[in-house]
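Chapter summary example.
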Amino acid sequence: STSSSTSSSSEQHRTTSRTRLELTLAGSPLTASSLQFASGGRSLVVAFPHGLRVIDAISGRTLHGLNRYWADCFSVAPDGQQFAAPSGDKEDVELWDVETMKCVGKLEGHSDPVCCIAYSPDGRVVATGSLDDTVRLWRAADSKPLLRMHSPDICGGNPLCFTYSGTHLLAASMDDDRNIGLWRWNLPDMRLQAELGEGQKSSKDQAGASESADDVPDLPTSRLQLWPEGQGQPHDADADADEIVTCFSPDGKHLSVACDDEIHLFRIEASAADCSATLVITVPCENCHLARFSPDSRRLALVERNTVEIRDTVSGALCFTLRGHHKFIRAITFSPDGRQ
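The structure predicted for these 340 residues follows.
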């Protein structure tokens, strides 16, 4: 058993090394700025300067490529078969089939660049956040606009998330007084809205009229402060919203906030009528610039320059540290099974 484990570990190390070596173009290494697994872990969607690549997760061979895409904020659907990424003009978002690399939809309506994207837990709804201070919801099946919400000053990192039940959409943000909190939207029954049109059409669709993204209703926005007033929220008073590193867990039940050389982990609780956030643990983490949860939300990977700390999300305890990079780490992700 020990010998088998050692052999498996060595094989994983060799695979990782080989993949890294093959990510070169014209003799120069490509700097990945974001990456996510797709197709059940068989491939990786990777953002490079000025483009996207779909890469075989074992060999590192490029399967498909898209040029001139501003893609740091792309998102892979929960089933791993589709991803959404801003198009060349940055204000629209295109939906792509991972296997065929065909564009299957386009989300048009934002007036400024899109900075964050999230799929609903069932993959039927796409949320997009933009520098135009709005978040919009779209039906993934046919790109139909559903709702629009006001959302200024969204934080950096991975700031947009549906709760696990799909009843709420959350966006980490910083208000005018530089307090970090959550924009919170209590969603209508998104499943019904998502199903409308997959087997039937609305009266407007039947009449042959196209629906503009500006014709959709505005959803009321409420604010949820992460630190209650008077508790002395710890963050750099000079930091901009996009300098605060935030990350939601895949199940929508946790939020990590990196600021002032600390990681603050919040538990998100949502019901059909309400949503709340409770500070669970705070741990030191100097110069954290990236954070990602494992698929089961039990581990949190924190990137500090060229090392990665893996911490337990219940106790905050350090599980282990990953070393080996010689330069600044710019992207990190977990495999779908959480083992890599």
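To summarize the output: Residues 2-22 form the longest helix (21 residues).
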